[in-house]
Prior knowledge:
- This protein has 162 residues and is mainly α.
- The chain folds into two domains: 1-43; 45-161, no CATH class.
- 72% of the residues lie in helices and 0% in strands.
- The protein contains seven helices and no strands.
- It has helices at 7-22, 25-43, 47-67, 71-106, 126-141, 147-150, 157-161.
- The two termini are 30 Å apart.
Amino acid sequence: MILFNSWQYIAFLFVVTSLYWISPKNTQNRILLVASLFFYGSWNWRFLFLILSSTSIDFFSAKAITRSKDPKYRKALLILSISVNLVILGFFKYFGFFLGSLNALLSPLHVSVDSLHLSIILPIGMSFHTFQAISCVVDVYRGEIEPEKECLPIMNLQTMFG
């Protein structure tokens, strides 16, 4: 784990900043993407799948919204992106709360749902990431921005892989 107040972070920041400034313009975003994923994964590598999945859905939804002229299809993509984001956030943020409430509700009936307890923690920055992604896809839907130029800049999968 790399903490912001550690020497490891200062070294990491120095290396990433140096690589960024000496690299050609067309690779700078890739460097930031890889560094961001490395930094995020240093806390808990299992959450990389979560953030990459969420970002991929948002990115490809935004790209498809831009390409489509069918209003119903565009709206369906918007709803899909927002729903996936909110389900992920809701699961990580509120699963324990709802499970505890359900347990309290069922306790007079001598029914317990404690076996469903999963010790879920909210990944770092998940709320911020979720609301930024929703904002981005809504702005793309409204035609206010382009997805790969102004939206999801650090997680631009097309820049990374295409």
